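Schema walk-through. Below, the input block comes first and the output block second. Nothing else is stored per chain. Lengths vary across the set, and this one has 449 residues.
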Amino acid sequence: MLFFFVNAYWPGYGIAVTQVLYIIGLFVVLKRCQVNPYWALIPGFREYHLSRCCDREHEGRVFFVLCILSLVSELYLIINSAKDGSGEVKTISVVTAFFLMLVMFAAVGEFVYTIRIFAGLCDLFGYSKKYLWFYFLFGREVMLWILGFGNASPKFIYLENTNGEGAKLSGMEAETLESGLTVNIEERTVSEFFKKRQLLRDIHLNIEPGRMVLLLGGSGAGKTTFLNAVNGYEKADAKITLNGIDLYEEYAKMKYNIGFVPQMDLMRVKDSVELTVEDAAKLRLPTFMNAKQREERIDEVLSFFGLMPVKKSLCSKLSGGQRKRLSIAMEYISNPDLFILDEPDSGLDGVMARELMQGLRKVADQGKIVIVITHSPDRVADLFDDVIVLAKDSKLTGRLAYYGSIEKALDFFNTDSMEKIVLRINREEEGGEGFADMFIEKYAEVCHV
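--- output ---
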Protein backbone atom coordinates (compact mmCIF):
# COMPACT_ATOMS: atom_id res chain seq x y z
CA MET A 1 0.00 0.00 0.00
CA LEU A 2 2.88 2.36 0.74
CA PHE A 3 4.11 1.87 -2.83
CA PHE A 4 0.75 2.92 -4.32
CA PHE A 5 0.53 5.92 -1.98
CA VAL A 6 4.01 7.14 -2.96
CA ASN A 7 3.45 6.43 -6.63
CA ALA A 8 0.22 8.43 -6.57
CA TYR A 9 2.07 11.58 -5.44
CA TRP A 10 5.36 10.94 -7.27
CA PRO A 11 4.52 8.89 -10.37
CA GLY A 12 7.36 6.58 -11.34
CA TYR A 13 9.20 6.95 -8.03
CA GLY A 14 7.22 4.43 -5.96
CA ILE A 15 9.78 1.61 -6.19
CA ALA A 16 12.78 3.85 -5.54
CA VAL A 17 11.26 5.63 -2.51
CA THR A 18 9.96 2.45 -0.85
CA GLN A 19 13.32 0.74 -1.42
CA VAL A 20 15.16 3.61 0.26
CA LEU A 21 12.72 3.51 3.20
CA TYR A 22 13.23 -0.25 3.46
CA ILE A 23 17.03 0.11 3.55
CA ILE A 24 16.86 2.85 6.19
CA GLY A 25 14.55 0.74 8.37
CA LEU A 26 16.82 -2.27 7.97
CA PHE A 27 19.90 -0.19 8.77
CA VAL A 28 18.40 1.02 12.06
CA VAL A 29 17.10 -2.42 13.14
CA LEU A 30 20.42 -4.14 12.39
CA LYS A 31 22.29 -1.42 14.28
CA ARG A 32 20.02 -1.81 17.32
CA CYS A 33 20.72 -5.54 17.26
CA GLN A 34 24.48 -4.88 17.15
CA VAL A 35 24.90 -6.32 13.65
CA ASN A 36 26.93 -4.45 11.02
CA PRO A 37 24.17 -2.19 9.61
CA TYR A 38 25.80 -1.89 6.18
CA TRP A 39 24.51 -5.37 5.37
CA ALA A 40 21.23 -3.50 4.73
CA LEU A 41 22.65 -2.47 1.35
CA ILE A 42 23.06 -6.02 -0.02
CA PRO A 43 19.90 -7.96 -1.06
CA GLY A 44 19.68 -11.46 0.36
CA PHE A 45 22.49 -10.90 2.83
CA ARG A 46 20.49 -8.24 4.66
CA GLU A 47 17.51 -10.53 5.22
CA TYR A 48 19.84 -13.30 6.39
CA HIS A 49 21.47 -11.05 8.99
CA LEU A 50 18.05 -9.75 10.01
CA SER A 51 17.01 -13.35 10.68
CA ARG A 52 20.07 -13.84 12.89
CA CYS A 53 18.97 -10.94 15.07
CA CYS A 54 15.75 -12.72 16.04
CA ASP A 55 17.20 -16.26 16.21
CA ARG A 56 15.55 -17.30 12.92
CA GLU A 57 18.76 -18.10 11.08
CA HIS A 58 17.26 -21.11 9.29
CA GLU A 59 14.60 -18.89 7.73
CA GLY A 60 17.31 -16.43 6.69
CA ARG A 61 19.29 -19.15 4.94
CA VAL A 62 16.25 -20.34 3.00
CA PHE A 63 15.39 -16.75 2.07
CA PHE A 64 18.93 -16.19 0.80
CA VAL A 65 18.75 -19.29 -1.45
CA LEU A 66 15.37 -18.18 -2.80
CA CYS A 67 16.79 -14.71 -3.44
CA ILE A 68 19.65 -16.22 -5.50
CA LEU A 69 17.20 -18.39 -7.46
CA SER A 70 15.04 -15.37 -8.20
CA LEU A 71 18.02 -13.25 -9.26
CA VAL A 72 19.42 -15.91 -11.61
CA SER A 73 16.01 -16.55 -13.16
CA GLU A 74 15.30 -12.85 -13.70
CA LEU A 75 18.73 -12.31 -15.27
CA TYR A 76 18.09 -15.18 -17.68
CA LEU A 77 14.71 -13.78 -18.67
CA ILE A 78 16.12 -10.26 -19.14
CA ILE A 79 19.04 -11.49 -21.25
CA ASN A 80 16.78 -13.77 -23.29
CA SER A 81 14.35 -10.90 -23.86
CA ALA A 82 17.14 -8.56 -24.94
CA LYS A 83 18.36 -11.06 -27.55
CA ASP A 84 14.95 -11.18 -29.18
CA GLY A 85 14.33 -7.63 -30.40
CA SER A 86 11.88 -8.51 -33.19
CA GLY A 87 8.83 -7.51 -31.15
CA GLU A 88 6.94 -10.52 -32.50
CA VAL A 89 4.88 -12.73 -30.21
CA LYS A 90 6.54 -16.14 -30.09
CA THR A 91 5.85 -19.40 -28.36
CA ILE A 92 7.51 -19.56 -24.93
CA SER A 93 10.24 -22.18 -24.83
CA VAL A 94 10.36 -24.88 -22.18
CA VAL A 95 13.46 -23.28 -20.60
CA THR A 96 11.83 -19.84 -20.44
CA ALA A 97 8.68 -21.34 -18.92
CA PHE A 98 10.82 -23.09 -16.33
CA PHE A 99 12.54 -19.86 -15.31
CA LEU A 100 9.19 -18.04 -15.17
CA MET A 101 7.88 -20.71 -12.79
CA LEU A 102 11.11 -20.44 -10.78
CA VAL A 103 10.60 -16.68 -10.40
CA MET A 104 7.03 -17.20 -9.17
CA PHE A 105 8.10 -19.97 -6.80
CA ALA A 106 10.90 -17.82 -5.37
CA ALA A 107 8.54 -14.84 -4.97
CA VAL A 108 6.02 -16.90 -2.99
CA GLY A 109 8.81 -18.44 -0.88
CA GLU A 110 10.38 -15.05 -0.15
CA PHE A 111 7.00 -13.73 0.99
CA VAL A 112 6.40 -16.68 3.33
CA TYR A 113 9.87 -16.59 4.88
CA THR A 114 9.79 -12.82 5.22
CA ILE A 115 6.63 -13.21 7.32
CA ARG A 116 8.40 -15.78 9.49
CA ILE A 117 11.39 -13.49 9.98
CA PHE A 118 9.17 -10.53 10.85
CA ALA A 119 7.24 -12.72 13.32
CA GLY A 120 10.58 -13.41 14.99
CA LEU A 121 11.30 -9.68 15.08
CA CYS A 122 7.98 -9.10 16.84
CA ASP A 123 9.07 -11.58 19.52
CA LEU A 124 12.50 -9.95 19.72
CA PHE A 125 11.07 -6.48 20.37
CA GLY A 126 8.22 -7.71 22.57
CA TYR A 127 5.41 -6.86 20.17
CA SER A 128 2.28 -8.95 19.70
CA LYS A 129 1.96 -10.91 16.45
CA LYS A 130 -0.94 -8.56 15.67
CA TYR A 131 1.66 -6.01 14.62
CA LEU A 132 2.21 -8.15 11.50
CA TRP A 133 -0.93 -6.45 10.15
CA PHE A 134 1.25 -3.37 9.62
CA TYR A 135 3.29 -5.54 7.28
CA PHE A 136 0.23 -6.78 5.36
CA LEU A 137 -1.53 -3.41 5.19
CA PHE A 138 1.32 -0.94 4.80
CA GLY A 139 4.34 -2.97 3.77
CA ARG A 140 7.60 -4.17 5.28
CA GLU A 141 9.03 -0.64 5.25
CA VAL A 142 6.49 0.61 7.80
CA MET A 143 7.02 -2.50 9.95
CA LEU A 144 10.78 -1.94 10.05
CA TRP A 145 10.39 1.73 10.94
CA ILE A 146 8.10 0.78 13.85
CA LEU A 147 10.72 -1.70 15.10
CA GLY A 148 13.71 0.51 14.41
CA PHE A 149 12.43 3.86 15.70
CA GLY A 150 9.96 2.61 18.34
CA ASN A 151 10.57 2.68 22.08
CA ALA A 152 10.82 -1.10 22.48
CA SER A 153 14.34 -2.54 22.79
CA PRO A 154 15.51 -6.00 21.69
CA LYS A 155 14.94 -8.55 24.46
CA PHE A 156 18.28 -10.17 23.67
CA ILE A 157 21.27 -9.61 21.44
CA TYR A 158 22.32 -12.48 19.21
CA LEU A 159 25.49 -13.45 21.05
CA GLU A 160 27.52 -14.39 17.99
CA ASN A 161 27.58 -10.72 17.07
CA THR A 162 30.03 -9.91 19.84
CA ASN A 163 33.10 -7.83 19.12
CA GLY A 164 34.99 -9.13 22.17
CA GLU A 165 38.64 -10.07 21.82
CA GLY A 166 38.49 -13.00 24.20
CA ALA A 167 40.75 -13.91 27.11
CA LYS A 168 44.50 -14.03 26.59
CA LEU A 169 46.02 -17.29 25.41
CA SER A 170 47.65 -19.36 28.13
CA GLY A 171 50.81 -20.29 26.24
CA MET A 172 50.57 -23.75 27.81
CA GLU A 173 51.03 -27.21 26.35
CA ALA A 174 50.38 -30.42 28.26
CA GLU A 175 53.23 -32.94 28.28
CA THR A 176 52.21 -36.27 26.73
CA LEU A 177 51.52 -38.98 29.29
CA GLU A 178 52.64 -42.53 28.58
CA SER A 179 49.78 -43.73 30.75
CA GLY A 180 46.64 -41.59 30.71
CA LEU A 181 44.91 -39.00 28.55
CA THR A 182 46.63 -35.90 27.17
CA VAL A 183 44.57 -33.15 25.54
CA ASN A 184 46.16 -30.32 23.58
CA ILE A 185 43.43 -28.51 21.63
CA GLU A 186 44.60 -25.44 19.72
CA GLU A 187 41.14 -24.74 18.32
CA ARG A 188 37.96 -26.29 17.04
CA THR A 189 36.17 -24.33 14.34
CA VAL A 190 33.16 -24.78 12.07
CA SER A 191 32.10 -22.90 8.95
CA GLU A 192 28.45 -21.85 8.88
CA PHE A 193 27.09 -20.02 5.88
CA PHE A 194 28.88 -16.63 5.82
CA LYS A 195 30.99 -17.04 8.94
CA LYS A 196 33.61 -19.16 10.61
CA ARG A 197 32.90 -19.91 14.25
CA GLN A 198 35.54 -20.81 16.80
CA LEU A 199 33.97 -23.29 19.22
CA LEU A 200 36.98 -24.22 21.35
CA ARG A 201 40.43 -22.75 21.84
CA ASP A 202 43.57 -23.21 23.94
CA ILE A 203 42.63 -26.25 26.06
CA HIS A 204 45.55 -28.22 27.50
CA LEU A 205 45.37 -30.85 30.26
CA ASN A 206 46.41 -34.33 31.44
CA ILE A 207 44.20 -36.91 33.14
CA GLU A 208 45.81 -39.88 34.87
CA PRO A 209 44.25 -43.37 35.05
CA GLY A 210 41.80 -43.97 37.88
CA ARG A 211 40.43 -40.40 37.87
CA MET A 212 36.73 -39.58 37.64
CA VAL A 213 36.39 -36.10 36.18
CA LEU A 214 33.38 -33.79 36.14
CA LEU A 215 33.01 -31.62 33.02
CA LEU A 216 31.33 -28.37 34.01
CA GLY A 217 30.25 -25.30 32.06
CA GLY A 218 27.28 -23.18 31.10
CA SER A 219 25.08 -23.64 28.04
CA GLY A 220 27.11 -23.15 24.87
CA ALA A 221 30.48 -23.38 26.64
CA GLY A 222 31.48 -26.28 24.39
CA LYS A 223 31.17 -29.29 26.71
CA THR A 224 29.77 -31.71 24.13
CA THR A 225 32.08 -30.28 21.45
CA PHE A 226 35.02 -30.91 23.79
CA LEU A 227 33.96 -34.52 24.38
CA ASN A 228 33.51 -35.11 20.65
CA ALA A 229 36.99 -33.69 19.99
CA VAL A 230 38.52 -35.89 22.69
CA ASN A 231 36.89 -39.11 21.49
CA GLY A 232 37.73 -38.38 17.84
CA TYR A 233 34.13 -38.11 16.67
CA GLU A 234 34.64 -34.48 15.59
CA LYS A 235 38.32 -33.81 15.09
CA ALA A 236 39.81 -30.48 16.14
CA ASP A 237 43.12 -28.80 15.45
CA ALA A 238 44.57 -30.79 18.31
CA LYS A 239 46.77 -33.61 19.50
CA ILE A 240 44.90 -36.09 21.68
CA THR A 241 46.83 -39.06 23.05
CA LEU A 242 45.67 -42.00 25.13
CA ASN A 243 48.43 -44.00 26.78
CA GLY A 244 50.94 -42.26 24.52
CA ILE A 245 49.15 -43.16 21.27
CA ASP A 246 47.85 -40.36 19.03
CA LEU A 247 44.10 -40.86 18.88
CA TYR A 248 43.60 -39.03 15.59
CA GLU A 249 46.42 -40.81 13.75
CA GLU A 250 45.51 -44.24 15.12
CA TYR A 251 41.75 -43.80 15.35
CA ALA A 252 40.85 -47.15 13.76
CA LYS A 253 43.05 -48.90 16.31
CA MET A 254 42.01 -46.80 19.33
CA LYS A 255 38.28 -46.24 18.84
CA TYR A 256 37.32 -49.36 20.81
CA ASN A 257 39.55 -48.23 23.66
CA ILE A 258 37.12 -45.35 24.22
CA GLY A 259 33.61 -45.82 25.54
CA PHE A 260 31.21 -43.00 24.70
CA VAL A 261 27.68 -42.90 26.12
CA PRO A 262 25.53 -40.12 24.59
CA GLN A 263 22.45 -38.59 26.18
CA MET A 264 20.05 -40.72 24.14
CA ASP A 265 19.82 -44.47 24.70
CA LEU A 266 20.94 -46.38 21.59
CA MET A 267 19.20 -49.73 21.89
CA ARG A 268 16.34 -51.65 20.31
CA VAL A 269 13.53 -51.79 22.86
CA LYS A 270 12.22 -55.13 21.50
CA ASP A 271 15.55 -56.89 22.16
CA SER A 272 16.48 -58.51 25.46
CA VAL A 273 19.22 -57.14 27.70
CA GLU A 274 21.43 -60.13 26.91
CA LEU A 275 20.98 -59.78 23.14
CA THR A 276 21.67 -56.04 23.32
CA VAL A 277 25.00 -56.54 25.06
CA GLU A 278 25.80 -59.52 22.83
CA ASP A 279 25.39 -57.37 19.71
CA ALA A 280 27.73 -54.78 21.23
CA ALA A 281 30.22 -57.55 22.08
CA LYS A 282 30.26 -58.82 18.48
CA LEU A 283 31.07 -55.31 17.26
CA ARG A 284 33.62 -54.30 19.88
CA LEU A 285 35.39 -57.45 21.09
CA PRO A 286 38.35 -58.99 19.18
CA THR A 287 37.36 -61.48 16.49
CA PHE A 288 39.68 -64.16 17.91
CA MET A 289 37.45 -64.50 21.00
CA ASN A 290 35.27 -67.61 20.78
CA ALA A 291 31.58 -67.78 21.74
CA LYS A 292 32.32 -69.10 25.26
CA GLN A 293 34.79 -66.31 26.04
CA ARG A 294 32.36 -63.72 24.69
CA GLU A 295 29.53 -65.10 26.83
CA GLU A 296 31.75 -65.01 29.93
CA ARG A 297 32.61 -61.38 29.24
CA ILE A 298 28.92 -60.49 28.77
CA ASP A 299 27.99 -62.08 32.11
CA GLU A 300 30.92 -60.34 33.80
CA VAL A 301 29.78 -56.92 32.56
CA LEU A 302 26.11 -57.56 33.38
CA SER A 303 27.10 -58.58 36.92
CA PHE A 304 29.33 -55.53 37.32
CA PHE A 305 26.44 -53.19 36.50
CA GLY A 306 23.82 -55.16 38.44
CA LEU A 307 21.90 -56.27 35.35
CA MET A 308 22.05 -60.08 35.79
CA PRO A 309 18.54 -60.21 37.35
CA VAL A 310 17.08 -58.62 34.18
CA LYS A 311 19.33 -60.46 31.71
CA LYS A 312 16.38 -62.04 29.86
CA SER A 313 14.08 -59.01 30.11
CA LEU A 314 13.17 -56.81 27.15
CA CYS A 315 14.78 -53.37 27.09
CA SER A 316 11.32 -51.82 26.98
CA LYS A 317 10.59 -53.27 30.41
CA LEU A 318 13.61 -51.72 32.14
CA SER A 319 13.46 -48.77 34.50
CA GLY A 320 15.19 -45.52 33.60
CA GLY A 321 18.21 -46.33 35.75
CA GLN A 322 18.51 -49.84 34.31
CA ARG A 323 18.41 -48.49 30.75
CA LYS A 324 21.22 -46.06 31.56
CA ARG A 325 23.30 -48.85 33.08
CA LEU A 326 22.66 -50.97 30.02
CA SER A 327 23.86 -48.15 27.75
CA ILE A 328 27.05 -47.98 29.80
CA ALA A 329 27.45 -51.78 29.75
CA MET A 330 27.28 -51.75 25.94
CA GLU A 331 30.31 -49.47 25.84
CA TYR A 332 32.12 -51.13 28.75
CA ILE A 333 32.04 -54.53 27.06
CA SER A 334 35.37 -53.84 25.29
CA ASN A 335 37.03 -52.80 28.57
CA PRO A 336 38.03 -49.30 27.37
CA ASP A 337 40.63 -47.18 29.17
CA LEU A 338 38.66 -43.96 28.61
CA PHE A 339 34.99 -43.63 29.42
CA ILE A 340 33.03 -40.53 28.36
CA LEU A 341 29.40 -39.90 29.34
CA ASP A 342 27.19 -36.99 28.27
CA GLU A 343 24.55 -36.42 30.98
CA PRO A 344 23.98 -40.11 31.83
CA ASP A 345 21.74 -39.08 34.76
CA SER A 346 19.33 -37.13 32.56
CA GLY A 347 15.75 -38.06 33.47
CA LEU A 348 16.72 -39.88 36.66
CA ASP A 349 15.70 -38.92 40.18
CA GLY A 350 18.29 -38.12 42.84
CA VAL A 351 18.56 -41.66 44.24
CA MET A 352 18.87 -43.35 40.85
CA ALA A 353 21.31 -40.71 39.61
CA ARG A 354 23.59 -41.21 42.59
CA GLU A 355 23.42 -44.98 42.22
CA LEU A 356 24.46 -44.61 38.58
CA MET A 357 27.37 -42.33 39.48
CA GLN A 358 28.52 -44.77 42.16
CA GLY A 359 28.71 -47.38 39.41
CA LEU A 360 30.91 -45.04 37.37
CA ARG A 361 33.06 -44.48 40.46
CA LYS A 362 33.65 -48.26 40.52
CA VAL A 363 34.70 -48.08 36.87
CA ALA A 364 37.25 -45.35 37.65
CA ASP A 365 38.54 -47.33 40.62
CA GLN A 366 39.50 -50.08 38.19
CA GLY A 367 42.10 -47.74 36.71
CA LYS A 368 39.90 -46.24 34.00
CA ILE A 369 39.52 -42.55 33.13
CA VAL A 370 35.90 -41.45 33.43
CA ILE A 371 34.72 -38.04 32.18
CA VAL A 372 31.11 -37.08 32.90
CA ILE A 373 28.75 -34.19 32.13
CA THR A 374 25.91 -34.04 34.62
CA HIS A 375 23.04 -31.56 34.92
CA SER A 376 23.04 -31.80 38.74
CA PRO A 377 26.72 -31.75 39.77
CA ASP A 378 26.32 -30.86 43.45
CA ARG A 379 24.41 -33.99 44.40
CA VAL A 380 27.28 -36.24 43.21
CA ALA A 381 30.33 -33.94 43.45
CA ASP A 382 31.86 -36.00 46.28
CA LEU A 383 32.24 -38.98 43.92
CA PHE A 384 34.54 -37.07 41.55
CA ASP A 385 38.28 -36.52 41.83
CA ASP A 386 38.63 -33.50 39.54
CA VAL A 387 36.61 -30.97 37.59
CA ILE A 388 37.17 -29.40 34.17
CA VAL A 389 35.47 -26.01 33.88
CA LEU A 390 34.82 -24.66 30.38
CA ALA A 391 33.65 -21.08 29.91
CA LYS A 392 32.75 -18.82 26.99
CA ASP A 393 35.17 -15.92 26.84
CA SER A 394 34.16 -12.50 25.51
CA LYS A 395 34.72 -13.83 22.00
CA LEU A 396 32.17 -16.57 22.79
CA THR A 397 34.74 -19.34 22.41
CA GLY A 398 34.91 -22.30 24.79
CA ARG A 399 38.03 -21.96 26.94
CA LEU A 400 39.56 -23.76 29.91
CA ALA A 401 38.79 -21.79 33.08
CA TYR A 402 39.94 -24.44 35.56
CA TYR A 403 41.16 -28.02 35.87
CA GLY A 404 41.94 -29.59 39.22
CA SER A 405 40.43 -31.07 42.36
CA ILE A 406 36.85 -30.42 43.42
CA GLU A 407 37.95 -28.87 46.73
CA LYS A 408 40.42 -26.47 45.15
CA ALA A 409 37.86 -25.50 42.50
CA LEU A 410 35.56 -24.06 45.18
CA ASP A 411 38.43 -21.96 46.55
CA PHE A 412 39.52 -20.90 43.06
CA PHE A 413 36.06 -19.57 42.19
CA ASN A 414 35.41 -18.37 45.75
CA THR A 415 32.08 -20.17 46.04
CA ASP A 416 30.54 -23.11 47.86
CA SER A 417 28.94 -25.19 45.08
CA MET A 418 29.49 -26.44 41.55
CA GLU A 419 26.36 -24.75 40.24
CA LYS A 420 27.54 -21.39 41.58
CA ILE A 421 30.77 -21.85 39.61
CA VAL A 422 28.65 -21.89 36.45
CA LEU A 423 26.86 -18.76 37.66
CA ARG A 424 30.20 -16.96 38.10
CA ILE A 425 31.41 -17.69 34.55
CA ASN A 426 28.13 -17.31 32.64
CA ARG A 427 27.58 -14.09 30.71
CA GLU A 428 25.41 -11.38 32.24
CA GLU A 429 22.93 -11.79 29.35
CA GLU A 430 22.47 -15.38 30.52
CA GLY A 431 21.84 -14.44 34.15
CA GLY A 432 25.45 -14.97 35.23
CA GLU A 433 28.10 -12.72 36.73
CA GLY A 434 30.22 -12.47 33.56
CA PHE A 435 33.66 -13.29 35.03
CA ALA A 436 34.70 -15.88 32.41
CA ASP A 437 37.67 -13.95 30.99
CA MET A 438 38.99 -13.18 34.46
CA PHE A 439 38.97 -16.83 35.56
CA ILE A 440 40.41 -18.08 32.25
CA GLU A 441 43.37 -15.74 32.63
CA LYS A 442 43.65 -16.41 36.38
CA TYR A 443 43.91 -20.17 35.74
CA ALA A 444 46.62 -19.62 33.12
CA GLU A 445 48.61 -17.52 35.61
CA VAL A 446 48.27 -20.17 38.33
CA CYS A 447 49.53 -22.87 35.94
CA HIS A 448 52.57 -20.77 35.05
CA VAL A 449 53.57 -20.26 38.68
